[in-house]
Design goal:
Layout (H helix, E strand, L loop, with lengths): L2 E7 L3 E8 L4 E8 L11 E2 L1 H18 L7 E8 L5 E3 L9 E2 L7 H10 L2 H8 L8 H11 L1 H5 L3 E3 L1 H10 L3 E3 H4 L5 E2 L4 E2 L1 H6 L9 E3 L4 E4 L2 H7 L6 E7 H9 L6 E6 L3 E7 L11 E4 L6 E7 L3 H11 L5 H4 L14 E3 L17 E3 L7 H25 L7 E5 L6 H11 L3 E4 L4 H13 L6 H8 L2 E5 L3 H15 L1 H15 L1
Parallel strand pairs: 1-5, 5-14, 9-12, 15-21, 21-22
Antiparallel strand pairs: 1-2, 2-3, 4-7, 6-8, 10-11, 13-14, 15-16, 16-18, 17-18, 19-20, 22-23
Length: 499
């Protein structure tokens, strides 16, 4: 048997997924790792945990699938974006890695805007400076830990640290590198202008590669630790969102992917770099040569329903939680939910934004609140679709949905009515790791292109079609929803400062 391996270094653990040459999943194993929050707003991990987790997951998935390391044709890597792992000249980790959800860098983001200019940064990198991105983290280290900064020789993203341990090579993919605020997305390489503005040596940064490109091979030492055959090719892979898009087949212009997990991601492929002038959408390189994508992220999508369940109905299955919401009228009897429980990124890059239930009366029951939460998340996703329309992208040609939230038929129907589009369901549970494995298949000539790999392995089914009457009602409610953030912003910021 010949198979392909995808490895996903996520925030909560390292997942290894094996697929065959038809895209069928042979096995999947996740090894959890710890998250450290030593101070308010901080989020860190030990890169050694990424590597030990990768070794454990790879060994176990090979064992559970009864596959030998020699049967693996190639390995693809993916993982959390924006992370910052710093190494010295002996490849020793200098400090815990700072993660994508770390929020300590507000001052550094203002420094970037002041010294370089938001418009200039957006024009080059496709995004404004945000607290989760890599460049502000690096500047924070420069300003607060000068002894660490002085020892830097290499800067790597999470999956690329695993790559280094797996192959001995310093390399990254262009989709993941797009989230650092240091990549020129038109040139598809590091921006000399950004690096020079902040005195960052180019030698610190790994070589950039297209997603299916082979960056190295498994070393003898890594082979002993993982049970992979030394010499097995390792491809560049992609940041987790681009890899997820490959896994659901969102690789051609005209296909929009919605992933509803803890966060909500809207991902639209393009054949040229398109930049939203205010930076409200991220414009990144895709994992596919000569393609790009636009992406919007809402931070608390499925996380909003998790919050409601955990606070008011702990332990209740989500299927039970959402029972009866189809009997609740559209608009939840005049109740709106603003899903900014952890701040927001799109369309409002505001870490101090706060959630709200607006319109509560004595008439409202628990299921009204549940439906209002589902509708509020769908309104938040529509915000991203409206931004896509504003830059000339049609987001209704084909919309593919995946993620835990989209397993609910009721939630899919609400989303279809709010967006006014037909949804195609992609039954994918392995997410980004599957996409990384498909990229490995292209790199090892199982498929001639990423398009072909997706055409032959990704399957969709029609899951929801909009109802005209419901669309009209939701259009009215959406306009009310859009007014909530500007009306409540002053109060949200004031309350944040008192807590």
């Amino acid at each position: 048997m010949s198979c392909l391996l995808g490895v996903d270094v996520s925030t909560t653990g390292v997942k290894a997924v094996l697929i065959d040459e038809h895209g069928e999943v042979l096995g999947a194993v996740t090894t959890p790792h710890a998250l450290s929050t030593p101070k308010p707003l901080w989020s860190e991990q030990n890169p050694e945990d990424w590597w030990s987790g990768a070794c454990a997951s790879i060994r176990e998935v090979l064992h559970s699938a009864e596959v030998s390391g020699g049967e693996v044709l190639a390995v693809g890597l993916t993982g959390q974006m924006h992370s910052l792992a710093l190494l010295n000249k002996r490849d020793q980790v200098l400090r815990p890695a700072i993660l994508w959800n770390d929020q300590r860098t507000a001052q550094q983001c203002e420094r970037i805007r002041s010294e370089f200019g938001s418009e200039n940064l957006i024009a080059i990198t496709g995004s404004d400076a945000l607290t989760g991105f890599t460049l502000p983290k690096l500047l924070w280290v420069q300003e607060n830990e000068p002894e660490v900064y002085a020892g830097i020789e290499h800067l790597l993203l999470a999956k690329d640290y695993v790559r280094l341990r797996l192959t001995g090579d310093y390399a990254t993919d262009r989709a993941g590198a797009s989230g650092t605020s240091m990549l020129d997305i038109r040139r598809r390489d590091w921006s000399d202008e950004v690096l020079a503005a902040f005195s960052i040596p180019n030698r610190w940064l790994p070589k950039t590669n297209e997603g299916p490109e082979i960056t190295g091979v498994v070393s003898e030492e890594a082979g002993r630790l993982t049970n992979l055959k030394p010499g097995t090719p390792v491809v560049a892979g992609a940041g987790d969102q681009a890899a997820q898009a490959v896994g659901v087949g969102a690789v051609r212009p005209g296909i929009t992917a919605v992933t509803l997990g803890t966060s909500g991601v809207v991902f639209a492929s393009t054949d040229r770099p398109i930049i939203e002038p205010n930076g409200a959408l991220h414009a990144y390189c895709h994992a596919i040569p000569s393609r790009w994508h636009m992406m919007g992220v809402m931070l608390s999508a499925g996380g909003s329903l998790h919050w409601l369940r955990d606070r008011l109905s702990p332990g209740v299955p989500f299927e039970e939680l959402t029972q009866g919401i189809d009997e609740v009228p559209i608009g939840s009897n005049g109740l709106l939910f603003l899903p900014y429980l952890t701040g927001e990124r799109t369309p409002h890059a505001d870490p101090l934004a706060r959630g709200a239930l607006v319109g509560l009366t004595i008439r409202h029951e628990y299921q009204h609140i549940v439906r209002a939460v589902l509708e509020g998340v769908c309104f938040g996703l529509r915000d991203v679709f409206e931004l896509l329309h504003s830059v000339g992208l049609s987001s209704s040609a084909e919309v593919r949905v995946s993620g835990g939230g989209m397993s609910s038929p009721s939630w899919r129907r609400i989303l279809s009515d709010v967006l006014g589009v037909t949804l195609l369901n992609v039954d994918v549970t392995e997410g980004a790791a599957l996409g990384a494995a498909l990229l490995a298949g292209v790199g090892s000539d199982v498929w001639r292109s990423v398009d072909e790999a997706c055409d032959k392995t990704v399957r969709t089914t029609r899951s929801a079609t909009p109802d005209g009457a419901a669309m009209g009602k939701y259009n009215v409610l959406y306009e009310l929803y859009r007014g909530l953030y500007p009306a409540l912003k002053r109060f949200s910021h004031g309350l944040a400062e008192t807590s």
